[in-house]
Amino acid sequence: MISIIKRLFEQNGFENTESFNIPDEQVLFMRNVKKNSVNFYLLLFTDNIDSIFSEKKVLNYYEKIIQINDEEYDERIDKNLSLIVFLKKNENITDPNLMNKIFNLEENPYYFKKYVCTYTNKQEEELKDIFPIPSKNDKKLNDILNNYVNNEKKFKKFKKKSEEESLYKLCITLFVKIPFLILKQKNEEIDNLQQQIQNELDTKKLADFYNSIEAVIKADEFEKELEQFYLKWVQNNEL
Predict the structure, then answer these.
(1) Closest CA to 4 of 137, 163, 171
(2) 200 and 208 Cβ atoms separated by less than 8 Å
(3) What totals of helices (H) and strands (E) does the chain contain, helices first?
(4) 0.85 cut: is pTM over it?
């Protein structure tokens, strides 16, 4: 998962701070410094939330960042730093207190904002499958995620079984837990259909016109349904 997330951040203008490391832990410190805005993310990859479930441990991460040498340290880190924990869950073991642990970690107000993104090994493998091998003409992972979430068949299947640890659920979770990821509505299809309607009006093909009207209505309804579902999902999952 660490290589996927690193690639996702790099495609969105972030650079990895190579000098930052914590022994025996999978961690990245990503920065995106622009003229008018800065963002810093500490990314932690673990399969045990209890290993970070303490204020002392969180403070340790913060102090490690502050200790970065003077050439790399940016004082704006203090107000623009977030922690995202990518927590791999064991599909065969259920932790009844997991949601409470996540809630307590995310609600901890000290040092920086905190997010927890959970996933299973199966979801990770499925995510790898939809992302192409890196190349010079690398397709934006943002676009791949958006296309996947905007797929109407996948969306309807997910709604029926939203509790399952599916790839669709992981994609939605990434949009919720990574602040710079934006879920875009798939307006291109509707625009194309509307142009088709206009063309058919011009040629007076009324039967095709009515079919196109119905297609636009269905496409628009799906957009609204997806948007409403996503907003509800954010409210329920942005702990």
Answers:
(1) 171
(2) yes
(3) 9, 5
(4) no
